[in-house]
Write a structure and sequence with these properties.
By secondary structure, the chain is an alpha+beta fold. The protein contains five helices and seven strands. It has two domains: 148 residues, no CATH class; 85 residues, Immunoglobulins (Immunoglobulin-like, Sandwich). It is elongated, with a radius of gyration of 30 Å.
């Protein structure tokens, strides 16, 4: 009976996936996507991994939805790490592979002779625990790798801030993927007042300096940052407005 139900679920699942690809209305697409990516995969996983451990329709539905969400997250992590990426065709291939694999596993388990069980943890529960650990480790690894691989090649911040005691603070931060060499010039309307000709920052490093008093009195100040590889081209620029009288 369960094998027939599993076969019917696989057929419904594949039909839902096909409809999701060709459907154009957004509501229909959303409903079919929920059915194909969450509900049916979760039900198949529950049937295979926990066939006798969950009793009651509400408990089985909750387990199916939870496993379906876990499958969708894990599938997204796996696809993101492949050259295929997260797209409709790779999702379809992965979904068909899961459905076919679970159906074969169901048929194979029905033909094997039953072995006496002595209690304890079942094979399905061990497999479920393994999937959970794999999901957690994969998500953590992907998040750590993404911080490095997806960081912009060049991301530099420059600031020029007045302080309550009348001093000013200048700073440069390099959040790119490679080290950079900078030159920082502080200018007033009369010309340059300070020059830092060589500031080397590795990825993630921050350089700061505080000037005890504001150069050029109350006048406007301008911080201009250059990269040493392009010494004549301003790379970043910030302006500190003139201090009002009184």
């Amino acid at each position: 009976m369960r094998t027939s139900a599993g076969s019917f679920a696989v057929v419904v699942w594949l039909a839902a996936l096909a409809l999701a690809i060709i459907a154009s209305p957004a509501i229909v697409l959303a409903l079919v996507a929920f059915l194909a990516l969450f509900l049916i995969p979760g039900w198949l996983l529950t049937t295979r991994l926990l066939p006798d451990s969950i009793h009651g329709g509400a408990s089985r539905a909750a387990a199916s939805i939870g496993l379906g969400i876990s499958f969708a997250i894990l599938a997204g992590v796996i696809l993101e790490l492949t050259p295929l990426g997260i797209a409709a065709a790779p999702w379809l291939l992965l979904a068909v592979a899961l459905g076919g694999g679970l159906q074969l596993a169901l048929r194979f388990s029905r033909t094997r002779p039953r072995v006496a069980r002595f209690g304890g943890v079942s094979t399905g529960q061990v497999a479920l625990l393994g999937v959970s650990v794999l999901l957690a480790v994969g998500a953590l690894g992907l998040s750590r790798v993404s911080v490095v691989t997806r960081a912009p090649a060049e991301l530099t911040q420059l600031w020029l801030l007045p302080q309550s005691d009348g001093s000013i603070r200048l700073g440069v931060a390099n959040y790119g993927r490679a080290g950079q060499d900078y030159r920082l010039v502080l200018q007033s309307p009369a010309g340059a007042v300070r020059d830092w000709p060589a500031i080397r920052l590795e990825p993630g490093q921050v350089w700061e300096e505080t000037l005890s008093e504001r150069p050029a009195g109350r006048g406007e100040l301008r911080g201009i940052l250059y990269r040493l590889e392009e010494p004549a081209e301003p790379y970043r620029e910030v302006v500190l407005a003139a201090k009002p009288e009184g």
